[in-house]
From TrEMBL:
The keyword Repeat applies. Coiled coil: none annotated. Pfam families: TPR_19, TPR_2. Gene3D superfamilies: Tetratricopeptide repeat domain (1.25.40.10). PROSITE patterns: TPR (PS50005). It comes from the Bacteria. One of its GO terms (molecular function) is peptidase activity. InterPro entries: TPR-like_helical_dom_sf, TPR_2, TPR_rpt. GO terms for biological process: proteolysis. This is Beta-barrel assembly-enhancing protease. TPR repeats lie at residues 80-113. Keywords: Hydrolase, Protease, Repeat, TPR repeat.
């Protein structure tokens, strides 16, 4: 029997909201566990994938974070936050060239001060 059998849309919304709370409470691994079930039931849910990517990043699970942010960007190439977060993931992984590319994409899509500063356009 699949893990998501017997789940309802309401259950998935509750799990998603609980995962947000766990991430805010600095329990990224707990958030990932809840989001695994949501994504198993709804693999197309980009918001859940983005939240799971953030949770992986917070748990210092950089490779899974990178994969999730990449999936989000395949679906939403104009998501400035996802570019910025992927850049931070690359930065923590020591992949500075890839990081700079995504910092610049984030800043080009949304000129928030932190995105522009990270993009280092003046260098």
């Amino acid at each position: 029997m699949p893990e998501h059998a017997g789940r309802t849309p309401e259950t998935d919304v509750i799990d998603f909201r609980a995962a947000e709370q766990l991430l805010a409470a600095r329990d990224p691994r707990g958030a990932v566990k809840l989001l695994d079930r949501v994504i198993a039931a709804h693999p197309e849910n980009t918001a859940a994938r983005l939240l799971r990517a953030r949770a992986f990043f917070a748990a210092a699970q950089l490779r899974p974070a990178e994969l999730e942010f990449t999936i989000v960007l395949e679906r939403e190439p104009d998501n400035a936050f996802a570019h910025f977060a992927l850049a931070r993931t690359y930065e923590r992984s020591g992949k500075s060239d890839q990081a700079l590319r995504h910092f610049r994409l984030a800043a080009a899509l949304d000129p928030r001060p932190q995105y522009v500063k990270a993009a280092r356009f003046d260098s």
